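hi support,

uploading two proteins for the ticket. first:
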Amino acid sequence: MTSTRAERDAALHADAGRPSRREQILQAAAQLFAERGSRAVGVDDVGAAVGVTGPAIYRHFASKDAMLAEMLLRISERL
């Protein structure tokens, strides 16, 4: 099945309002860390929350600590 350029463009615009996968991961991780504490949350938990496998998280972050570090950096920038 081939798609037309218009169909591809429409699909891209439909995704424009949605957060990137990286943002989805950060949002889910922040929620889980707040609920359970970062030590009690594994990458599999974060992956499940966004609909990917745990190892897929490593395409976006080097480690769980890297996710936490980015969250803390963003928080400190807002202060």
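and the second one:
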Amino acid sequence: MLAPPEVAAASRTGWRTAPGDAAALAAALGAALDLDPAGRQALALRARRHVAAFSLAAMSATTLAVYAELLTVSAEAS
């Protein structure tokens, strides 16, 4: 999840709260519920784009690219 302060509010994909902090959780839920329809849609779109990087296809492609790079480096060193 992407949440401030690590990312700008415009890049947010959700909210983080400390475990056991009921006031922070209530504030986060209130902020989520206060979003207008366009805000909810934008948040959902950002979240879907963010998690796409963790799909099986994306992770497989990344792993294969690393293997290809290692094989190329190994072949060049031989």
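thanks. also noticed: The mean pLDDT is 90.
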